[in-house]
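Case study B.
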Amino acid sequence: VGAAAGLTAWASLTAGAGEELVAVLGVGGAAALMVALAGRWQELLPWAISLLGAQYAASLLIRDGGIDALAPFYAAGLLVTAELAYWALERGPAARSFVVPRIGALLALALGAAGAGTALLAASEGQRGGGIVLQLLGLAAAGAAVGLVTSLAWRSRAR
Amino acid sequence: VTRYVTSKLGAYTGLGALGLVGALALGLPELVVLAAPFTLCAALGLATAREPDVDVALELDRERALQHEEVDVRLVVTAARPVGRLELVVNLPDGLVVAGGTNPAVLRLSADEERSLDLRVRAERWGAYLVGDVFLRTFGPFGVVRYEARLDRRKPLKVYPAPEAVRSLLRPLRTQVFSGNQVAREKGEGIEFADLRPFAPGDRIRRVNWRASARRGELWVNELHPERNTDVIVFLDTFAQARLGSSGTLDWAVAAATGLAERYLKEKDRVGFVSFGGVLNWLLPGTGPLQLYRIVDSVLDTEVILNYAWKDIDVIPRRTLPPQALVVALTPLLDDRATDALLDLHGRGFDLALVEISPFPFTERGRGKTGELAWRLWTLRRAAVRARFERAGVPVAAWNENVPLAAAIEEVTSFRRHARTLRV
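Model:
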């Protein structure tokens, strides 16, 4: 919840004029996260993370400027928030010997996410205005991802 | 091993898809950066997940224990491949609880590592158990895939009821022909004095009572009671039981049955066992320590199984109830079928004694006027059932938490000593 609050503050402060709208989305995300953690309601977690992502998207739309160079760090923060939330909801005994390696793995994951994000951002800078082919390719990728979600949901329902 | 996808996989893929669609719709490449880590985690988690190769061996330090005793369980876990987080739980049957060690346990295992886990299990209730239903759970990388396995490593554990202390035994009205420790009513070769009678040709000189002979001026001899054995049938009514929490009338009855069987067998009597209820279970009378083990094993199989079929005494095999046997019935008097069967046994000439396992400690009074009335009706009905037995000349002793079993046995003995059937 602390990480979510930090992300909310970050997005609100960098939003500029419409910071209230951004803050509302962020607070909504943090509140949803808190409810999910308090009620051990795992299904609510993606919605909370989505709201935090939507808050960032709103801040990008509101403010005037080019590509946000700090986006990879926000992405890493969002991933760490999601991982911490899922960790908090894990059942079973939490042995102390597992905590330190897991925190290390989480930091490595955050660094990896930030690195991958930076690489993607650099690639997008190079391909800016790439044309209809790349747009279609992106659409197909997004469609494939949605299809995968649907198939996974179907499989989990069938079990 | 069964593989499941976790809800996290769906969530991460969904978040990734949402970011990609949002990036396309809004023309914001930053959202692709936001979505990428989630999509990568999901994809890498699926691609690198491998089925764990874990095995568990289970050992019990013994196969038999007494109720409330503790048994050590050792689990040896081996992994052919490294396992980051292995959750292991031994599913203990009802009646067994963990007294020491951790269950469930979490382990980290490297390749070809062997790890031992020690559990201490306390037997809260008697019974025949199978210990070793082991559940394993591991997660793939990024927690998007879950592997679960159930290993059947069950080993038998027999928990014998702690026998109820019985100091004095109920003496039978009639004995059998073999020698034992019960004083027979008949006269013959024995130790206990029975009567005096005039000397008859063939009597041994050592039987002559010289003091009585001197007083009467002719030879008189002592008559003696021989020591014989007896047949005792421990009759357990398992039609119904009253239960509150972890204890019930059946547990008390089982403890009493074990204690009585042990004591009678020590007295060289032949002891049989009948569990009369939803399921009929019987054991032919026998003697010796082996018979005690047989009885205790039969007792372990005893349970109350709901059954509406009307059963009478005819369903019990004839050889199980030898003529002139003493039948000690342990019953909560909750089912009319048991009542009728016991009265039928008495009518057929069996020497019957009833130990009523009181259900009152396991029942709660009804609330309100209706509840109070129902309680009073129930207690009156029980009193009527007891009166039926007493009118028939069957001794009934109530055994509850305030009365030791020995006192209940003494009550039966006293009834038999003083009660007389009046025929008018």
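Chain A touches chain B through 50 residues (CB under 8 Å). The remaining cases will be described in the next quarterly update.
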